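re: ur question from earlier - yeah i can do the single chain one, its not a big deal. heres the input i used so u can compare w yours
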Amino acid sequence: MTDNTPETKPKPVDSKNKSFIWGAKQMLGLAPDVMTVRGMARMLEPERWTQLAHSGDFVWGLYKRPKMGPHTIAFKKSDLTATCTCSATKQPCKFILALYVLYADQPQLFSISAEPDWIQHQFDQQPARQIKGANLDQVQAGMAEFGRWLRDQIQYGVSNFPDRVSSDVEAMANRLIDAHLPLLADSLRDLGRLVAPKKGNPPENWPEIVVTCFGQFYLQTQAWEKFDLLSTVEQQDLIHAFVSPQIRFAMVAPITSDPVAEWQIIGRRFETVGRGLARRTWALDLVSNRFLMLEDSASGRNRTIPQFVTNGAYTHDQLFAPSIMNSGRLFNPLIDGGSVADFQTIEHHFIQVRTQNPWQRFYPVVLRQVQLHFDEPKRKWLLTDRQGNTVTMTNGGDLGWYLLASSKGEATDLFAEWTVNGLTLLSIFTGDQWLDLNVWGSKT
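and the output i got, formated as tokens:
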């Protein structure tokens, strides 16, 4: 999608603010994680705020702090970009989130006033997002170094690999970060934590795990060594799978443009990538049943990023880079007139996608009329389709109980990412609208 602010079309919401098209629950869904939602709960007390006001496109307020100056927070109604003087790097922070919810749910607290000078100043002070000096050669050099490191590890042998974790693994992970390969660095660190945990003992089959991971790493380094022999589409998928989102778009081939279309936001996913936080926002074209994925960085102090509200409709030109996922019906063959897709069919299509793009980590799916239940012996949350097939929820935990309560134990529609480890649920269709699951994961 281009950087221009998209037009929005109102959807029915539960907001008490008739002049604002978004509701409090939709605002909660913008949170990067459940902890942010829980952290802002006490900030919804009006007495903690001063100078709550709004004008044409701006909403603002000052959050009081004992013995310290107040935090100043503001956001734009048009695209929900926001600014705050706190030191948080997550976007939106708990102060911004609280201001969103207050304005949506208690508009009577906000007076009509002229915009104070500090608002424009804060918006003008946003840091540049460019990373200087980053290019494809730098990434390839980082992968080549990782390949040499991997061969050295294999030469040393696997038997004493846990003893080398504290020195070798962490040093190599840091160099991968410097080469703008954060997902690979995270995978390497995960392996290190598994075979050399700070508490407890590693799993009994840790040598097998190490050999398996080394095999996967080797295949990845080999793909990069043969980068010039790959097709344009294969190169783009490789870049997309490994390179940091902040610099990825400077490396992609010329993009193709789709005509103006209406996209409904259907869910979002936040992931820790390297030292930052990445956000994937999923939209669905209700005419062609094609998914659009918007990916950006959701971390960085004093940054502003547009917020796309789940269940909102956005109309704008869409720009797509060459990719296997953008070719034909392979992009999303599973939504067809609202028909039910069973888990076996979904897994078949996911395997089909992975066969053509082995680096694809997730696959978006709308699940029609699935049942949630808790497997007591395995202590896991499971989903069951109409054919009786079950699949594990990767983000069950406490979220499962809230989901069970909201669905009242009945079959429901969910949006999720299908992964090799199971389903990661992102949103639920309830009350004639899609809502992010952060709402149910909170205690508010």
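The radius of gyration is 23 Å. not sure if urs matches, ping me
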